[in-house]
Each structure stands twice: as C-alpha cells, then as structure tokens.
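Rather than argue in generalities, we have chosen a single entry, letters for residues, whole numbers for local backbone shapes, without further comment.
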Amino acid sequence: MTQDKFKNKTLSTERNFPHIIEIALPESGLAANVSREMATFHRSCDIRLRFGRARIQNGQHYGRWCFSEPAIADAFRKQFGGVGLKSKP
C-alpha cells in the first residue's frame, strides 16, 4: 500500500470510528503480552482492531486505536491507559 493510500485509510478509519484512544508507545514497541491483551479485549467486545494515525512528538511514538462506541473506547482507555480523543469531522 502506498503512503498516500495508507494515510487516506487511517483518516477514513478515524472518521468512521471517531472515539480514539491515543497511547504513548515504548521505544521497543508494545510488549507481546500487552498486544495479546488488546486483541483479547477486542474479541471480547466482538469488534475488529482498528488503528488510526501514528505520530511522533519530541521523539515519543504514539499509536491510536479507534472505536465506534464511546463506552468501549473508555473501557479500553481504563484498561490500557492513554488519552481519549474525538476525531475531527
């Protein structure tokens, strides 16, 4: 997938799933057990993993998980940390 197509897909995801949790990622990436726990969370809610844009600010990497329902996004934030954002239309 080209960079432009990837960017368009992530922007579309954030538009369609506007309840976003942004998490600061460790330099080494997410630990395998955390990734598994996140996948289990999504399966338990009967939803697909949906990722938004990633960004880097002052050397810190951030990832975004996108949800259609605010309650599920809030439960994800409570379990895994991060900051809740609302997608801009």
Remarks:
- Residues 3-16 form the longest helix (14 residues).
- Strands lie at 19-25, 55-57, 60-67, 83-86.
